[in-house]
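Dear colleagues,

As part of the handover before I leave the project, I'm documenting each prediction I ran so the next person doesn't have to rerun anything. This entry is a single chain, and its sequence is reproduced below.
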Amino acid sequence: MDLADGLLDHPYDVYRRLRDSAPVHRIAGPDGTPAWLVTRYEDVRAALADPRLSLDKRHATAGTYKGFALPPALDANLLNMDPPDHTRIRRLVGRAFTPRRTEQLHAPVRRTADQLLDALGENGDTDLIASYAAPLPITVICDLLGVPDRHRRDFRVWTDTLVAPAPGTPPEAGKHAVVAMLGFFTRLLADKREEPGDDLLSDLIAVRDEGDRLSEDELMSLAFLILFAGYENTVQLIGNAVLALLQHPEQLAALRKDPGQLPAAVEEFLRYEGPALLAIRRFPVEDVTIGGVTIPAGETVWVSPSAANRDPDRFPEPERLDLARDTTGHLALGHGIHYCLGAPLARAETEIALAALLERFPRLELGEGEVRWRPSLRARGLLTLPVSYARTSASSG
């Protein structure tokens, strides 16, 4: 099957049919080349932690994987690495990306959320992605890394061009965006070396320069990955969560009644409508059997956390949004050594963003206009989310 058939418009219907028919499917991947797709929970969870499934593209059989080619200075990141390099770099990043630093961001995140909501006024209509869900995480991650304000809009444009280009975008736009980002990170690293600040990027530079344990390409690729993933995953999670609540008013009412449910609710949003339809591709270093199907070494394997999180053998009535559900073990942020490094920050941002939004606007509902999803087989997120809002509820007159 062609992976694109129906997946953009009705992903969970497609995944349900695939799960029901077989544990592993031979497909045409996002780049058009043959691949294997894994959709059942137990198989996906095992595959995410299987050391025989490499993220290193050098293990791909020649001609079986195309993918989008980044320059080496942006490609030497954790999403393309196996141990021992992955272990070394993740440990170094962990020294700078501490729980204390994440905790220190809570107040600035809330302050930014309030400022964005202040700009909306007392009541009206807005595209919540453009006015709130997108600018909040880009501000947070740029503050974390120490990216100057003047560059933040450019970075949003570049990432959107790479992940979900608008209809009519010329094919060369992606390459131009990559060239622009490479130049941006080259200048940013030079500026941080000349004038270090109290930010994560300055800390990463210090880690490299003191012990020379990160190559220049690794350092630049890390900066790119943290900025890219820190923005993309969170904007999708916030937007998807708000849409889910607006489509399930009984769950929204329950959350308003008991805001203490919010941390558990975020886990259900992750399970129900996570930020990725597919995890990063993998390549077996030897023949591997998954779900009774033997996959030859070097072929491309795609696993779907979104499909796994809707598997009824793991989560009863998986198509139902239930904020009181036991979501233990969901795979929206990965599993194993490649579990999302920024997961605590993504959770905290989403909790704060939702808390601020629901506190500010007792009346929040879908507005006029079209809810549009990104045309991406990787990212599961919204392009537009029209909402109507007011500081007072309808019943208060």
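The chain has a mean pLDDT of 89. The CA atoms of residues 146 and 198 lie 8 Å apart.

All the best with the project,
I.
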